[in-house]
Amino acid sequence: MQFSPPVSRDRIISAFPKCYNPQACLQMKDDWNVEAKVACQDRTTRLQGYDRFKMSKAVVVGDLNVGKTCLINRFCKDVFERDYKATIGVDFEIERFEMSGLPFSLQIWDTAGQEKFKCIASAYYRGAQVIITVFDMADIKTLENTKQWLLEAVRENEPDSCFVFLVGTKRDLLSTEECQRTERDAVKIAAEMNAEFWSVSSKTGENVQEFFFRVAALAFEDAVMKDLESGTTSSTQIGDGSILNDKTLEVTQEKPKKKSCC
Ligand SMILES: Nc1nc2c(ncn2[C@@H]2O[C@H](COP(=O)(O)OP(=O)(O)OP(=O)(O)O)[C@@H](O)[C@H]2O)c(=O)[nH]1
């Protein structure tokens, strides 16, 4: 019988992903941190054959109907749903990456924007390394509300422990001028929130993959750097998040996704 190697479903990030707008950017550099790079290369040789994955958690928050679910579905499943179906409570996806030769997983939590589900959703904000605040570029009042969403998500986490992103969706609905105007407003709000700004369309897919690659790269690098700072570089764990082994991850991914768990 001929042996065929398993097909990798990891998304390989080989170059450090760039920001969308240098005026609202969390990190301006265009390559991995040198120390992190060296540490990763070192691990790759040492850890050949290991079956453990580091996972970071990203929570996606924002008003109802702004396009949180569509954003996640465009990236994770490459689909776009035209009809609105409210998220009830929360839902999540896990995406696997390979960075600097090391596996990394991003848990992406989709939360409900409807007020009546807030109490369920907010219970899942805890332990996030990334907070993604979403607004609808075609509905400007949702931009102002992102500040409140951020406050609520941050409250459940250590101060200054999360990367914050501000994402404007539905850019396909705006003219070039409208888009530029809204982006200028968003850059100001991003500065107040200490967030990195992105403008995307889940309908056309514009900037969606670039955005999530950026999220994954920053979260991964941060996890490696935290490890180096805490002196745990000789361990097989990267970062302070959860670890799961390959088999657990396979099972999680093969199971039908739990819709709206609470
Ligand atoms: N034209 C366009 N429509 C979009 C885009 N993203 C989302 N929509 C539409 O906006 C509506 C709401 O999208 P959802 O992703 O369900 O919104 P949500 O933020 O998850 O809403 P809640 O679950 O209530 O919090 C749907 O009808 C989508 O088809 C986009 O990029 N462009």
UniProtKB/TrEMBL annotation:
<comment type="function">
    <text>The small GTPases Rab are key regulators of intracellular membrane trafficking, from the formation of transport vesicles to their fusion with membranes. Rabs cycle between an inactive GDP-bound form and an active GTP-bound form that is able to recruit to membranes different sets of downstream effectors directly responsible for vesicle formation, movement, tethering and fusion.</text>
</comment>
<keyword id="KW-0653">Protein transport</keyword>
<dbReference type="GO" id="GO:0005525">
    <property type="term" value="F:GTP binding"/>
</dbReference>
<keyword id="KW-0472">Membrane</keyword>
<dbReference type="InterPro" id="IPR005225">
    <property type="entry name" value="Small_GTP-bd"/>
</dbReference>
<dbReference type="GO" id="GO:0046872">
    <property type="term" value="F:metal ion binding"/>
</dbReference>
<dbReference type="InterPro" id="IPR050227">
    <property type="entry name" value="Rab"/>
</dbReference>
<keyword id="KW-0813">Transport</keyword>
<dbReference type="InterPro" id="IPR001806">
    <property type="entry name" value="Small_GTPase"/>
</dbReference>
<keyword id="KW-0636">Prenylation</keyword>
<dbReference type="GO" id="GO:0015031">
    <property type="term" value="P:protein transport"/>
</dbReference>
<keyword id="KW-0460">Magnesium</keyword>
<dbReference type="GO" id="GO:0000139">
    <property type="term" value="C:Golgi membrane"/>
</dbReference>
<dbReference type="GO" id="GO:0003924">
    <property type="term" value="F:GTPase activity"/>
</dbReference>
<keyword id="KW-0449">Lipoprotein</keyword>
<dbReference type="InterPro" id="IPR027417">
    <property type="entry name" value="P-loop_NTPase"/>
</dbReference>
<keyword id="KW-0479">Metal-binding</keyword>
<keyword id="KW-0333">Golgi apparatus</keyword>
<dbReference type="GO" id="GO:0003925">
    <property type="term" value="F:G protein activity"/>
</dbReference>
<comment type="similarity">
    <text>Belongs to the small GTPase superfamily. Rab family.</text>
</comment>
<dbReference type="Pfam" id="PF00071">
    <property type="entry name" value="Ras"/>
</dbReference>
<keyword id="KW-0342">GTP-binding</keyword>
<protein>
    <recommendedName>
        <fullName>Ras-related protein Rab-36</fullName>
        <ecNumber>3.6.5.2</ecNumber>
    </recommendedName>
</protein>
<dbReference type="GO" id="GO:0016192">
    <property type="term" value="P:vesicle-mediated transport"/>
</dbReference>
<keyword id="KW-0547">Nucleotide-binding</keyword>
<keyword id="KW-0378">Hydrolase</keyword>
